[in-house]
């Protein structure tokens, strides 16, 4: 048995050595050398001294900078402050009274604050020039606000948000506001009245603006479509005349219209002509409507009295006008 | 002849669609009356620099641009006990200050606004939040006139 194994081993050795080595498990190379055990802990000179590598510190880059260098290529992007790259004698930080603030080397204060060294005026100009190819000019004919409001009466307002947060989506970005002048819709009196009733407090009387805010849908596009739908629906609904709207009589009117009341016919009877031809009728009709709409107070009564006197060409009696009412 | 027939059959059975040129409607540029940036930060110096940058960029694009800022920051304070449960009279107060400034551009087209916003937002420094409000003007829809 032993013989057999020996023979086998010998025959293996005869095989090409590299092939044998490749399949061999034994460690290759110096397997005969053992490390001597150092009992007394005598220092071996070959291992004792480790050469200390000196890191080469280059002088600051600012020493070699030309005066007319292109700063934009030295500092191309946002980066925290580096003293050896910035050729400016900057000082920053708090010290005891009398001492100057610490200089730029190893100054944490300068590194903390975000700097704008990559956005110097010539760099901004260069970048803007490159970006201008994507821009289009504002139409020259639309130079004043009146023209803009006349041709483009609808204003749609929406917001984008950009901040460092856990999400890039902000739920407030979905809100869309529609604003327009009521005059631009060209509604008649009846339709306007109905429109204002439908709109409610979304109408501002002083500026004549209607503001509709949509925030019920999850996306901005949906809200935009919804707002335009609302505008269309409001417009057509206010134009529509329902059968019950015909039943509205003079008593149901919410305001006093002088041309539809007895006062007008009475004046016409007195003067025996149409009311447009009577001099001073505008003042009178205004006074009467104001009296009826606003109610009885010092101002309306005085105005009414003056209007009647001018209409009938009566003298203004001094006693009455001077008397406090 | 045979090859020709084979080719035509293959073409009929192939699932690769023929390239069809679809005419897309030309997208009209929108008109933006004002573009207002609301910037908030806890560092007024950074805010000042950024406003200057935004206004300069707007001027280079040929827009009317202006900026202003609120004089007083918003202080958000909260007061807590110094020790967790006891000594009610001894408290500490923490405070967050938010400074506001605004930049406004007038009369832009949609493409200009997109370009400008992209440029400005990409250069937004750390610790600054931006809210861009666009006021777009539109014609009355055809069915309302």
TrEMBL record, chain A:
Pfam families: MRP-S28. Residues 169-241 form the Small ribosomal subunit protein mS35 mitochondrial conserved domain. This is Small ribosomal subunit protein mS35 mitochondrial conserved domain-containing protein. InterPro entries: Ribosomal_mS35_mit, Ribosomal_mS35_mt. It comes from Hypothenemus hampei. It comes from the Eukaryota.
UniProtKB/TrEMBL annotation, chain B:
It comes from the Eukaryota. Gene3D superfamilies: Ribosomal protein S10 domain. It is found in: Mitochondrion. Keywords: Mitochondrion, Ribonucleoprotein, Ribosomal protein. Residues 36-133 form the Small ribosomal subunit protein uS10 domain. The keyword Cell membrane does not apply. Signal peptide: none annotated. Coiled coil: none annotated. InterPro entries: Ribosomal_uS10_dom, Ribosomal_uS10_dom_sf, Ribosomal_uS10m. Transmembrane segments: none annotated. GO terms for cellular component: mitochondrion; ribonucleoprotein complex; ribosome. Belongs to the universal ribosomal protein uS10 family. This is Small ribosomal subunit protein uS10m. It comes from Hypothenemus hampei (Coffee berry borer).
